[in-house]
Amino acid sequence: MCASEVASSEHYQACHSCDWLVQIPSLAEGEAACCPRCGQPIASRPRFAQQRPLVYALTSLIMLLCANLLPFLSVSTQGLGNKILLYQAATTLFSEDYASLGMLIYLVMQLLPLCCLLLLGYVMLRLRWHGPLDLSRLALRWLFWLQPWGMVEVFMLGTLVSLIKIAALAEVQVGSGFWCYVAFSLAYLKSFMHLDRNRLWQQLVGPVPLQVEPIAPCSARELDLALCHLCHATVPLDRGYCPRCQSRLHARQPQSLQRCFALLLAAIILYVPANALPMMVTETLGSVMNSTILQGVVVLWKMGDYPVAMVIFFASIMIPIAKILALLWLCYSTHSGNPTHRRGRTRLYHLTEFVGRWSMVDVFVVAVLAALIRMGKLMSIYPGDAAVAFAGVVLITMLSAMAFDSRLIWDLPPSTVRKPE
Ligand SMILES: [Zn+2]
Ligand SMILES: [Zn+2]
């Protein structure tokens, strides 16, 4: 940065994970910068960030439309059969007692991703052909609020697992709508991989002056600065809101540990019915069989489907327990001011944040099976009450991870805050 330039959010960024104020070097395309204190990625400059997100978003939208119009999956056994379109994997549940579960699945597997793609497409086009700034700012805010809740890749895995499960019961055929959904998922993920949130906001609204000149390495809070978690600008805290995206600002998330802990307790309570009640009800030739998550894993293991059994075991049993235990320990160690292993604890936090959504796999498996296996008394599958409870566990643990503010790990003790590890 030149001596004559005023320090701004363009040159300095507070680390999302530890609040360390870092001077961002000029990055070439494809380069990324990491925080020197906690080691987490802090800024990046994806290649072709102007073109690729728009191209992938448009491809993704077309593929999603095709995926909904073309046959998704079909199944047949002993002269009876059924075929479904993509949206029916969720909407079949509307007509039964599981409308809320159906709506949730429909939201996360295509409605929210669709909204994100439309918002992203609008903002990228706005950057090329100037439009109203307020509308673009609103669109970007909604885009980054909704984006964490899209679960296209998890639904894809759930569908693959269902295919393997169905193959053991009947003849299953994959339609062209399925391949369109695969293409949609890949293009959707790529469109966000090539997106630089900070740079996007910078192009749209511009940098924010810091009003102070950072001299020695320090945390943003020591200079009354804060990172806006929505637009990733580092801005003066005194305003109370981010001048770039208008979000409310906090030096630390209010009652972070309390909210995280309360949500964890709710998840633990809900985890009991999620495992004790039946996840899936199978009706075969008039006989009804209920199976819990664990029973489903045992049946798969006995049938020799070891990889699928392992996927369900890890996603539905290991990950929720590990995530709850990890967050409980992070809450406790942060509350007690433990100054050790701060880098490791920060990494653990980001890992729990990343893996939590994958637990939805089993819920998606049940939804696809319940939509597809509809052959009357010969063979039908319905979701059990545990599916609703388990989806609740996944969403609540995701909320509890979002409530945890990892910067608190680095706040204590004050005497060591200034020293990068
Ligand atoms: Zn950091
Ligand atoms: Zn902001």
Describe the structure.
This is Paraquat-inducible protein A. Keywords: Cell inner membrane, Cell membrane, Membrane, Transmembrane, Transmembrane helix. Its main location: membrane. Pfam families: PqiA (PF04403). This protein has about 425 residues and is an alpha+beta fold. The protein has three domains: about 10-45 and about 205-240, no CATH class; about 50-195; about 255-420, Up-down Bundle (Butyryl-CoA Dehydrogenase, subunit A, domain 3), CATH 1.20.140. It is about 50% helix and about 10% strand. It has 13 helices and 13 strands. It has helices at about 50-70, 90, 100-130, 135-145, 150-165, 175-195, 195-205, 255-275, 295-300, 305-335, 340-355, 360-370, 385-405; strands at about 10-15, 20-25, 30-35, 40-45, 75, 80-85, 170-175, 225, 235, 280-285, 285-290, 375, 380-385. The strands form five sheets. Strands 11-10-13-12 form a four-stranded antiparallel β-sheet. Strands 6-5-7 form a three-stranded antiparallel β-sheet. Strands 1-2 form a two-stranded antiparallel ribbon. Helix 8 (about 255-275) runs antiparallel to helix 10. It starts with 11 loop residues before the first strand and ends in an 18-residue tail after the last helix. Bound molecules: zinc ion (2 copies).
Percent in helix? 40-55%
The CATH class designation of the largest domain is Mainly Alpha
Structural class estimated from helices and strands: alpha+beta
According to DSSP, the number of beta strands is 13
Mean of the pLDDT scores? 86
H/E series, N to C? EEEEHEEHHHHEHHEEHEEHHHHEEH
The side-by-side strand order for the widest beta sheet comes to 11-10-13-12
CATH topology of the largest domain: Butyryl-CoA Dehydrogenase, subunit A, domain 3
